[in-house]
Amino acid sequence: VTGMTCLMSRKLVQSALPFPSQAAVFFHHDLWLALVATAMRGVIFVDRALVDYRQHGSNAVGALDGSAQWVRPGSAVWRRRRAGDYFIAGYLAKCLYLRMTDVAEIEAAAVNQRALGTLAPYLAICGTGATFLGDALVWALRGRFALAGRALTFSLLRLARLGWAVKRCIRAGLVPELADFDRKGFSLAPGVQPGLVAEPKKTGAMAQVVNATTFTDPRVSPKFRPVVEPAGDGGLVVLLPTLNPTEIFAGIATAIDIGVGLAASGVPVTLIACDLPVASMAASRAFVARRAHSCGAPPDALDRLRLACGVTSASIVFGRKDRFLATAWWSAHVARHLILQGGFTNPRFYYLIQDFEPNFYPWGDECAAAMASYAFDYTPIFNSTLLRDYFAAQNIGPRGAAPLAFCPAIDIAHYSGLKRHTHPIRRLALYGRPEVSRNLFPTAVQALEKFLTVERLSSRDIDLVSVGLPHPDVRFSRGQMLRSCGKIPWADYPKFLSGVDVGLSLMLSPHPSHLPIEMAAAGARVVTNGFGGKDLSTLSSAIQSSDPDATSLAAALSTAWHAPKVSAQERQIDLGKLGAPLSEVVSALAAELAGTALLLRKSA
Questions:
Q1: Strands of 378-383's sheet in order across
Q2: Phi, psi (5° rounding) for residue 465?
Q3: Distant-in-sequence, close-in-space partners of 600: CB < 8 Å, separation ≥ 6
Q4: Model confidence over 312-362: pLDDT tens digits?
């Protein structure tokens, strides 16, 4: 597909921009447009000559005849060209898959999932190239030998890639695994294991040297240069990990909602993606627009919302009176760095604290860096009074006026008004996220094993499902199966909750997760765990707060299993105990920002 012969829709342009990064050797904008079109509505070929293309004999670039294109098979140029074809194809396949995932988040019908499925051979991590080999045979049978040769090359490169990786893994892992075997062997013998004997160094071996910069966490410094201008009344800059719709979870969505609310109040707001590049700025803008619409923001609020990518932008312009909002511990380091580097008028930033983040890591560098962020000069905004009180009890954070705290954004009336759906078999739902340590997935599985054994429940008595993140199904000793449903689509979520009889949702942190509250409001008996001063049973008697160990949780599950149905009164949960509504916190922030701007204008 040649770019100058194309006619395309606005939707295709918005989905295709920005182009994936291009190198001096590879310019693939025409190809990229054709790929995006193929993954959406498709490409229609007009079999007519509509362009009169001329090229003089001294053209530096342009069409080449066959003799100029031919290179000797097996030569260095041939190998580089074939390898380049393969790697640029793999690169574009991954870019296309990620881009179309973002487009589908906005409009699922716009993406041709069948066409997207043909990218699988490029996306497979450990593929052997068998699909490409099959393509080569098909093309050869059709007499398309050039395409057959290219597919065969792709197949050989995939196989070589896998072999190279296996060889490197064996080299890197063989000695440590042998040493581990020896340690296990010595542990079977009486006495004390002898000390390890160092391997003799190879003659002439050079010591490995690494740069000191490799030990620096790249997240704690801005990837862009701040350009600070003296003009302007001052706005809010929100530092986010990502602006890609498919990568936005509840915490990032809350920060975006704060920015949207401030923009609706007249405050200029800039949302910056600091960790991951923006795949499609149009998709990100559409996502923010949808959040603004759902929050009831007026249309002109979007005029005060600016989106920027801090990963791919060399510089970003700020006003000297701008304030920053950090949304994670590393973005607090970025905010502090920007304030010191840019010479902003106000040295204090806002810090949206949605959990006690040092506990996300083992005792080490990340834990220490997260803890260090709480010693900066900032105004905290806590996600719930439980988290605020935990920080106060641990004597962490700045002193002064009572910090802002907002309650979880849960529509209790919506969930408590759901009509209950009964299943032939009673359903127990687990919040299952094995990759997230604080959700205690192994402990939950152990508790279920004890509960099922004590209650002598079979698969005819109970339906076990896990929601949150996909994982392998789990078989228990009595034959019951915990089915993983992964992430429930938002449209199906209320109906799912209305059919849950007992919920098990664990969170080893002071933050109150949404799921126990939503389950209880929807009419389920819920077992969760306490932490510090957190006790969600004070919100409703439909919630039991247990110690976070398998035995205590199993006993709590038995109590919930035999308890009567949740009453309408138990489903009416007052979230006011957990903080003010987010809208009130946003109003307080808007007033403070306006007051600060007014004070600065007077002093100037």
A1: 305-309, 269-273, 236-240, 323-326, 349-353, 378-383, 404-406
A2: -130, 150
A3: 234, 321, 345
A4: 899 999 999 999 999 999 999 999 999 998 889 899 999 999 999 999 888
Q: What number of H helices and E strands is found in the chain? A: 20, 16
Kindly tell me if the per-residue pLDDT of 186 is higher than 60.
Answer: no
How does pLDDT run across 189-230, given as a tens digit for each residue? Answer: 555 445 545 555 555 545 567 778 778 888 999 999 999 998
Q: Give the number of other Cβ atoms within 10 Å of residue 407's Cβ.
A: 22
Q: Is the pLDDT of residue 59 over 80?
A: no
The CA distance from 245 to 253, in Å, is 10
What is the rounded CA–CA span in Å between residue 604 and residue 578? Answer: 40
Which DSSP category does 8 fall into? Answer: -
The shares of helix, strand and coil residues in the chain, as percent rounded to the nearest 5, are 50, 15, 40
Q: How far apart are CA 495 and CA 420, in angstroms?
A: 9
pLDDT, mean of residues 366-385: 95
Quick check: bond before 442 cis, omega within 30? no
| CA distance linking residue 460 with residue 582, whole number of Å | 44
The CA distance from 345 to 412, in Å, is 42
Q: What pTM does this model have?
A: 0.68
Q: What angle, 0 to 180 degrees and rounded to 10, lies between the N-to-C axes of helices 76-106 and 281-294?
A: 10
pLDDT in tens, 106-147: 788 889 998 888 998 888 888 888 999 999 999 999 999 989
Say which residue the tokens 């705290």 belong to: 405
Tokens coding 187: 């542990």
Instruction: Give the separation between CA 515 and CA 500, rounded to whole angstroms.
Output: 12
- Distance CA(190)–CA(400), nearest Å, equals 61
Structure tokens at 375: 């010693």
pLDDT recorded at residue 598? 44
Return the SS3 of 461: coil
Residue 462's beta-bridge partner residues? 426
Determine which helix (DSSP H) or strand (DSSP E) holds 59, and give its type and residue range: none
- d(Cα 29, Cα 19) in Å, to the nearest integer? 7
Cβ contact 349:326 at 8 Å: yes
Any idea what the Cα angle at residue 596 is, between residues 595 and 598, rounded to 5°? 65
How does DSSP assign 292-357, residue by residue? HHHTT--GGGGGGEEEEETTT-SEEEEETT-EEEE-SHHHHHHHHHHHHHHT-S---EEEEE-S-G
**Nearest of 420, 434, 406, 383 to residue 520 by alpha carbon:** 420
Rounded to whole angstroms, how far apart are CA atoms 157 and 131? 12
What is the DSSP code (8-state) at residue 580? B
Asked whether 355 and 250 are in contact (CB, 8 A), the reply is no
The more confident residue out of 54 and 196 is 54
Tokens of 226: 């701040």
Q: Which of 123, 126, 144, 125 is nearest to 135 (CA)?
A: 144
Which of 273, 247, 278 lies closest to 259, judged by CA? 273
Rounded to whole angstroms, how far apart are CA atoms 310 and 306?
Answer: 13
The size of the chain, in residues, is 604
